[in-house]
Amino acid sequence: MVSSGGYIAEDVRPHSMARKRSHWERIVKLLASITSILTCIAWIGVVPAEGADRPNVLLIYTDDQGSLDANCYGSKDLTTPTLDHLAATGLRFTQMCAPSAICSSSRAGLLTGRFPARAGVPGNVSSSKGHAGMPPEQVTLAEAFRDAGYATGHIGKWHLGYDEATMPNGQGFDSSFGHMGGCIDNYSHFFYWQGPNRHDLWRNGKEIWMDGQFFPDLMVQECREFLTKKRTQPFFLYWAINVPHYPMQGTEKWRQHYAHLPAPRRMYAEFVSTMDEKIGEVLAQLDQLGLRDNTIIVVQSDHGHSTEERAFFGGGNAGPYRGAKGGLFEGGLRVPSFISWPGVIPQGEVRDQFVTGCDWFPTLLDLAGCEPPGHAIEGQSLRSVLLQNGPSPHKQWCWQLGSGNNAQFAVREGNWKLLVNPRDTSGQGKLTDKDKKFLVNLESDIGEATNLAEQEPARLAQMEKLLKSFRAGN
Ligand SMILES: [Ca+2]
Known about the structure:
Layout: H1 4-10, H2 15-46, E1 56-62, H3 81-88, E2 91-93, E3 96-97, H4 103-112, H5 141-147, E4 151-157, E5 175-179, E6 202-203, E7 206-207, H6 215-229, E8 235-240, H7 252-257, H8 265-288, E9 295-301, H9 330-333, E10 337-340, E11 349-351, E12 355-356, H10 360-367, H11 383-388, E13 396-401, E14 408-413, E15 416-420, E16 437-441, H12 457-471
This protein binds calcium ion (CA).
């Protein structure tokens, strides 16, 4: 490079000298340009192919795990070292709300970033072969990642459609292993809900039989194979582990460990710790492959715990929250939720901001440096919540569970929440006709015990207006 001093000296030289100098200068500049072009070409040659340096994403969606059902959330009767380790090496949320309080809708919200009803899944889809689920035109997280050059895999439960177009391979997953309906017996892999009894285990759209093999172990094996095969390219693995959903089939080790607990907490705890152990086995594989630091791990429940007969009428722990699976009180919506990405996301911190399961769609794409979706979604990126402990991206939110006259709704603005047609599946207090509009302030009444609808008519009207606006699609 010519120093600036040289140019200053040039001004006082005779014109002919200056012209000659200018001629050489042009040649030097031309050579410099050629050199920088060549440098650029050489650099492009060594830059990794697009996506090769992007983080992997492992999204683990647990099933019917109650609001506080991990040791680090306050359930000190549980042994959950894997989840506790994730909290210590990442963040956990205290106000992560599921997109809905039942399986299919929650999964639709997670995988599309949209209000589940707008994704075409206001309630549970059929668990019977041949029945369509979430419309295939909905854009899933798997499709978004696949478009960005990721390998995409589904392992575990699906429950978003049981015909070719709406099974996982029709919704953006390169590979799929698991059951299509809502639940299975973990040894026979038969649907575990009602008759007629039927087998439900599939690989890439083809029925397979793996008689007598414990499904959580099969999922671990599948995860390990996926991680090993895809370790050299960015991947998005959606592991929808069907645990601790009924039937509660914890292993012998955990049956002995929890022998002192009363039923149904005992059976539930056995299955929670079985789940924790299986997740730990997959995380150990990530460590062995050297992928842990370049993999974003999210673990979250799809909604609150079940109080159904098949779940022995309970066993999960919602702590101070009212409600459970199937209703829009906090016990149905607040879920244990973790994210860990060592080196990028703070470790051992807690986030209390109101956030939702719909937010993972834009958040994971954002963190991975992929393009945001080109269409409107309700979820928002949590980047600033995660990295800077920034404010909640949501001033307002809305939930719908079911359709028709008995559909439940909840709408939230700040700490105010209005429930319409509420259902309390935890049986805490009777709901009367007056409670069909149930207004609470979560700041003063986290247990949602007192209906303020009559005392706060102006607030009720405002919340009803907001709900109407959401229902109109605004
Ligand atoms: Ca569930």
